[in-house]
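Translate structure to sequence.
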């Protein structure tokens, strides 16, 4: 062997590994292609070629590459550069980045299990002999591991065969099997295309004995329908407005007046170059749009700082249209896939088939297809909408990245590594492609605002809501006073209850925000104060009524509610605190007849559950939507006029230096859901702390003052945006070992970094999933090179990552933790 390849294995290994390139494969191996290699005793892996070198590695004879999987590289050099940056900046391995970056279907390994796709009819001619053997075996078995497949086919490396079968849709990877929930389909009606003026008049004349049908037809025109444009309306809305029934609608369909169809078919094929249906921008929007473009001339990133409902999305749309026209790609990052439902519909309306969606709720096959599509059509203009992992897609002609709701903490990956921040990584990705980056928010992260103020990013303001709508009126309800005056019913002040009732009676909708799910936040003994705790974590269990169990929100452990206190035996157990589940139940009891639904992690686990809730709320089938922070983000409902924040205190009292920033963002964002169309919205905040400066700033809608006050404190106490943080989490099953080892590491780090090291200390939850936890923090001031500091840190902790260090503690680095 005269050539060698450094490959990245999808494992948390500290370095790349070198394999030999056998002569027959020499023309095939290339950077960015996948190869099959053996690692460990008998394990096969898909690895990615990162570099080709002529020099043999020193000290060992490399094993050979067994097979090359790709004809063309599936990962570009630019992508590899991004991987390198991430692994260096966030102190993780390239293998970890690779694992996060590639969809599972692109990185098969021996342990991967494949299962038959029962929906696919077997056509013998489509299969090679090897493939046939596998499919035959799968007829009688639920699944096969790749090792088993190797035995059946007597092929040593069957990965390529499996790839082919995946491509032909005969098999699925086990992890992509998901519950087969279907989205609720929304039905639309529109005038039959091509129906003539004359025909319509004739039919209308014949309807004098069918007043319901006549009314239905009239309503269609009243709602803005016309012969020339035949727009579609939601069938349920049409029926409600006209007070006609289903049979009337059906009759009109049979007579050829209306056509009825389901959602999916609306997306009309539209040429990529010609975005359709673009709305003309208002003067303010137009001005902001020009300023963004101007800023892009000298800076690569720009903050679009626009109040809620100022029409930021429409500005993005116009920027996207320009990029697509110039045959460029656009990446539109959203903090959570939950948010995409409404957005995708809006974007498809403008850009049709140019929109490509990529997120974790998609099946792996869909993700592989999206990847390959982009890779093969590297320069075709596309709008890619996705959550943070779409940063890893193979872009060829990226012109613009939009980070919407850039302040959202879900842009930061928490676990596992790479613990990257999608906004910050987007800036780097933008530089690699010479693309522009637009960060949009009504409540920017303080770091971002700071950068904009420093001139690092451009800064464009949009202070008015679209259509000159006023921002909602925000009032506080003093909980202490309400309690004293006996004006509380459960967790609702009478004022809030009355407002909810009035709003719903007036035909409007309500959003209620509570930062906790479940029924009660804990159950405590009245006698001795003992709280039921998780057996794996040092945290109290939350009571969930629908399952009648106590549950840990960290590890998922559940147990029955004990009949008596485990400590003292008293049977007087008192529920404390309240979550969304209780609110939903209480409100339904207090205001019978009002339709209340809940949106939180528990009600949105199933596929499409979220979409269905949103469309039910849009269609007016829900009056009050109770939810956790899920309801605060970017949603655009036109009929919501009241927002209630059930308890601001829990937000304000959270022990974290970002608590006030977060509380401000959450409250301002959820308030922003009110009054987006028509009349001015109203927001009621229940709190026992009505003069808290954060609440005052929310009421005044004064972001700038909030920022100034908070960053003053941050500077004093050495926090971001003035200082950079790096958190080292140390874990061990044994408390004593953890204490001792952490102390030793803390000491060693202090010798090197001095005062910049804080801890070790126990965090808020000192035990999780049976691991004891301590934290050490590194604070880096503006002057020092974080790159060097990280390098030093790596060197000082290297021995923890060696194989033989298993008994030692586990170390986790989190750079710029949130
Ligand atoms: P933001 O993203 O700033 O919260 P949106 O872009 O969602 O605001 O706009 C708020 C509402 O105003 C949306 O319902 C949107 O359709 C409407 N809107 C915004 N700009 C325009 C425009 N130029 N023409 C018509 N409607 C607009
Ligand atoms: Zn737990
Ligand atoms: Zn007790």
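Result:
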């Amino acid at each position: 062997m005269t050539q060698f390849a450094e490959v990245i294995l999808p494992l948390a290994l500290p370095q790349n590994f070198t394999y030999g390139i056998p002569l027959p494969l020499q023309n095939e191996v290339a950077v960015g292609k996948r190869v099959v290699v053996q690692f460990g005793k008998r394990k096969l892996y898909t690895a990615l070629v990162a570099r080709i070198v002529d020099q043999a590695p020193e000290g060992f004879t490399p094993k050979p590459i067994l097979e090359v999987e790709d004809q063309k590289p599936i990962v570009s050099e630019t992508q590899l550069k991004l991987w390198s940056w991430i692994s260096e900046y966030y102190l993780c391995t390239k293998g970890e980045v690779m694992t996060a970056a590639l969809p599972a279907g692109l990185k098969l390994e021996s342990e991967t299990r494949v299962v038959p796709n029962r929906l696919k009819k077997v056509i013998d001619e489509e299969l090679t002999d090897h493939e046939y053997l596998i499919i035959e075996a799968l007829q009688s078995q639920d699944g096969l591991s790749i090792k088993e497949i190797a035995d059946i086919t007597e092929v040593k490396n069957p990965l390529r065969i499996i790839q082919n079968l995946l491509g032909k849709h005969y098999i699925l990877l086990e992890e992509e099997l998901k519950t087969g929930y279907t989205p609720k389909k929304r039905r639309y009606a529109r005038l039959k295309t091509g129906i003539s003026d004359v025909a319509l008049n004739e039919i209308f004349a014949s309807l004098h004995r069918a007043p319901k049908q006549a009314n239905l037809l009239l309503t269609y025109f009243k709602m803005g329908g016309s012969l020339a444009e035949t727009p579609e309306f939601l069938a349920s809305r049409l029926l409600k407005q006209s007070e006609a029934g289903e049979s009337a609608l059906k009759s009109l369909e049979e007579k050829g007046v209306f056509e009825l169809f389901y959602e999916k078919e609306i997306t009309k094929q539209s040429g990529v170059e010609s975005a359709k249906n673009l709305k003309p921008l208002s003067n303010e929007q137009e001005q902001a749009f020009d300023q963004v473009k101007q800023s892009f001339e000298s800076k690569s990133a720009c903050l679009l700082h626009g109040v809620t409902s100022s029409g930021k999305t429409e500005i993005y749309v116009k920027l996207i249209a320009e990029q697509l026209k110039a045959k460029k790609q656009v990446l539109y990052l959203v903090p959570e896939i939950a948010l995409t439902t409404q957005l995708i519909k809006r974007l498809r309306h403008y850009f049709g088939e140019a929109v490509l969606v990529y997120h974790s709720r998609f099946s792996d096959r869909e993700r592989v297809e999206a990847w390959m599509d982009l890779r093969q059509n590297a320069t075709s203009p596309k709008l890619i909408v996705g959550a943070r992992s779409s940063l890893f897609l193979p872009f060829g002609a990226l012109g613009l990245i939009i980070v919407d709701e850039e302040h959202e903490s879900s842009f930061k990956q928490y676990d596992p590594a790479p613990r990257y921040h999608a906004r910050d990584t987007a800036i780097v990705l933008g530089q690699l492609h010479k693309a522009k980056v637009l960060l949009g928010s009504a409540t920017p992260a303080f770091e971002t605002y700071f950068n904009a103020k420093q001139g690092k990013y451009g800064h464009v303001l949009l202070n008015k809501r679209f259509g000159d709508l006023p921002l909602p009126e925000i009032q506080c309800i003093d909980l202490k006073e309400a309690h004293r005056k006996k004006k509380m019913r459960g967790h609702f002040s009478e004022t809030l209850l009355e407002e909810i009732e009035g709003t719903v009676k007036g035909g409007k909708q309500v959003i209620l925000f509570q930062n906790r799910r479940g029924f009660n936040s804990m159950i405590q003994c009245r006698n001795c104060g003992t709280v039921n705790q998780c057996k794996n974590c040092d945290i109290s269990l939350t009571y969930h009524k629908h399952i009648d169990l106590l549950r840990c929100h960290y590890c998922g452990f559940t147990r029955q509610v004990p009949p008596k206190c485990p400590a003292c035996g008293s049977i007087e157990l008192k529920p404390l605190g309240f979550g969304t589940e209780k609110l939903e139940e209480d409100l339904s009891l207090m205001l019978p007849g009002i339709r209340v639904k809940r949106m939180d992690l528990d009600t949105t686990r199933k596929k499409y559950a979220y979409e269905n809730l949103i469309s039910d709320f849009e269609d007016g089938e829900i009056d009050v939507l109770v939810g956790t922070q899920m309801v605060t983000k970017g949603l655009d409902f036109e009929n919501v006029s009241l927002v209630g924040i059930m308890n601001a205190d829990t937000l304000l009292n959270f022990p974290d230096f970002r608590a006030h920033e977060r509380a401000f963002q959450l409250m301002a964002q959820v308030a922003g859901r009110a009054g987006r169309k028509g009349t001015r919205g109203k927001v009621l905040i229940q709190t026992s702390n009505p003069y808290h400066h954060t609440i005052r700033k929310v009421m005044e809608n004064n972001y700038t003052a909030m920022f100034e006050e908070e960053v003053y404190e941050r500077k004093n106490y050495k926090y971001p945006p003035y200082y950079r943080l790096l958190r080292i989490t140390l874990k061990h099953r044994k408390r004593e070992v953890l204490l001792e080892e952490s102390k030793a590491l803390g000491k060693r780090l202090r010798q090197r970094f001095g005062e910049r090291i804080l801890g070790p200390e126990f965090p808020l939850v000192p035990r999780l999933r049976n691991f004891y936890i301590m934290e050490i923090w590194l604070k880096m001031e503006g002057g020092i090179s974080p790159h060097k500091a990280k390098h030093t840190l790596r060197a000082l902790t290297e021995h923890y990552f060696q194989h033989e260090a298993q008994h030692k503690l586990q170390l986790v680095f989190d750079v710029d933790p949130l």
